[in-house]
Automatic annotation (TrEMBL):
It comes from Brevibacterium linens. This is Lipopolysaccharide assembly protein A domain-containing protein. The chain crosses the membrane at residues 15-37, 52-74. Residues 120-140, 149-158 have a biased composition (Low complexity). Keywords: Membrane, Transmembrane, Transmembrane helix.
Amino acid sequence: MKDQIDVSVRRSPKYSVFMGIGAVLGIAIAGILAIFVDPADMPMGYTVAKGLGLLLLVLGIGGLFLGGLVALILDWRGRKKAKEFRVDAQIDMVDDPKEIARRRIAEARGEDPDADAGDDGTASASQDAAPAVDDPAPAADDGDDAGAGRDSAPGSTV
């Protein structure tokens, strides 16, 4: 069954990239601030290393949260600018996995998936098996597919 559905297309930021950049900027700012710290101005019991560690922790986490906030704002703006499109969709109304597989194979071959459908699907199974016996070419191609990046489990018929 072919139908048309409405889809929304929009740009969306990658949160991890924004948060990572925010954390790196926070750490960089902490390093720059540590350069301007005079060790004589530090309170008793604190060293420059302890102060730098505290700055790294606070500004790194602050940058992480600010980067996430920027990503949220950009995502919110992207939802406002989303474009709506109407596209053709195929909705399979069957629950039988064999029937779904038969229809997808027929579509991949360029055939009408409803043309050879029987009442219980047995007619399509006998028709699908017949070309495999007459045409030995698919068996020869199986060896070439091993290096084409297609992984299949041992004993798989897919």
